[in-house]
Amino acid sequence: MRHRPAEVGLAVKRLQHRHHRALSRALAPLGLSLVQWDTLRHLHSNPEASLHALAVLTFQTDQSFGSLATRMVDRGLIERVPGPGRAVRHRLTEEGERLRVAGQELADGVVDVSFQNLSAEQLDQLGDLLDLALGPDPAD
Fold first, then answer.
1. What does the alpha-carbon distance between residue 126 and residue 70 come to, in Å, rounded to a whole number?
2. Which of 10, 24, 124, 133 is deepest in the core (most CB within 10 A)?
3. Using one digit for the tens of pLDDT, what is the confidence trace for 10-64?
């Protein structure tokens, strides 16, 4: 069966929406929203990232991420540290790291359920195909 690009795009979007709903439910008992956990995850991978870099990684505007970061600082999940010049960098706190780890375990379970019907080979193939489809960003 041939799949039209629009159908494949819609299927990717539906799967992403399913993941977002399931992750939001799974993270709620930790007191985290999906975007908060995503911030913790990206900050772990990109220590001392700038506000702008974190906004890009989490699909937020600088302004909306600034508000989110302020709330996360107030909760003790991240801290702001001086960077070069006037730059401000962000860092995980111990509590932020604890919640990141707990959230990662939950996220792994959600994603594992989504792909449980695929063999390891099929999952690798899907990953390769998505990498190929993503290619370089034409906006860059």
1. 37
2. 24
3. 999 999 999 999 999 999 999 999 999 999 999 999 988 889 999 999 999 999 9
